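Record pair follows.
FIRST:
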Amino acid sequence: MALPRELKVDRKASRRKDAKAGKPRIPKRTAEWRRPSAKRVRALRDRLREIYGRPVNQPHGDPVAELVRTILSQNTNDRNRDVAFDRLVERFPTWEEVRDAPTRQVESALKPGGLAKTKAPRIQEVLRRIGDPPDLEWLREAPRDEAVEWLCELPGVGRKTAACVLIFTWDLPEMPVDTHVHRVGGRLGLFRPNASFEEAHDEMLAITPPADAYEFHINLIRHGRAVCRPKPKCDECGLSRMCPWRKARTAQGERVG
């Protein structure tokens, strides 16, 4: 399938547009932070691998399903997301049926996932915008920046959702930043303190080797769920000696973990 007309843009023109719009350039170093070296990123990857293993991506090749599944994951846990997704595809065997069904019926199918009154019309609108029949196969060959920009113009789709579509569907190198990655990455100094999610996405892409994207993403999430929680278990952390956040608070006399 050919690229949509709106994706056929000049990349230099796009960069000029960003500059004109005043999009800030992320510094590699500030008074309190320095972008981690490739050696440090590899060391963190290796330590996480020792603790959690080396996850292997199994891309499923269904971008529409991934887009819907990721929208369903917003503000809920994986179990509720999966229950809602399974109920949706069981009740409506095709995406055209989901798109054209009465919204109340879609809401009913999605109820176990939470926020069904918001997600049902959002998913139906997304399905209306991605073609008839709904199709996203062209994203696989699209330039990465333009594909992400196009996806982010869909209702309810941000950088994390767009990144999930690309990496989980085709194993394209992306670094989705959820709350766990944002918290753990911030504490490890992978991006600036108090960086926005947008900036964190850009930084994680800049420092992560493409071949390590899936592994690093999954293991940061595992670490965030198991140890580096909002109230961290620093005494149990296998990364404690590599953590500037812990070192800074220990130096200030704080008790952490």
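SECOND:
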Amino acid sequence: MMCLKIEYKALFCFFYDINYTQIMNKYSIVTATCFCHLVLLSTSMQTYADNDDFLTPVTSSYYRIGQLLENLTNNTNSISICYNYNCQTQRTISISQENIQSIKKIFKQFNSTQNGERRAISHAIASLENIAATQTPVYNDKARNYNDKGLPGRMDCIDSTVNTTQYLGFINQLGLLNQHTLLKPVYRSPYLMGQHWSAQIKDNNDGQHYAVDSWQTNNGHPPVIQDVESWTTREDNNAL
């Protein structure tokens, strides 16, 4: 906790030209100062690189996502989704019987192994995103947070996590998840700060957890599905 305090003091001094030495004398920590300065710089660079959320507390996002998933509902012919960053806008999209048959057809196209079902999941989510794009402005959403700032329908990782979890819940309602179980969302923060969230599933055969991360792709494109261990450290291996 002290390290976090020092980081914020260092950040404050950087922007407002406050005497950094005086602040550090107050905490009387010199070694920790150097360490936390390095952490701050490396975290800032990583945040700039992929736009993970830099300052929002994990607990705040956790309760926000939990509250949204509790309040948003699905039924046999509709899915509730959100967009415009931090789920500021919430809408219910209609799913026709023709749409449902298309989703079921996707699962028939892939083999019934664990890997085959994960591939079917990624394509089914892309299909549901495309359906949502005909009824809401989420067609503007681009991968990560780079190219859609200010556009209606944009989504940060909170929106993407909630929506992907909703889509997975709908797919599960259709009885199509046989090799996997839908879990609560997962987050990563490998650089002390810079959190990022994703939907999550578990392989029923070996218990492996997978992140289903639609934030990394444009709306309507298959999300990245990756074992949680690799996803947590931002490794590119083992991703669909």
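COMMENT: Confidence is low (pLDDT under 50) at residues 1-51.
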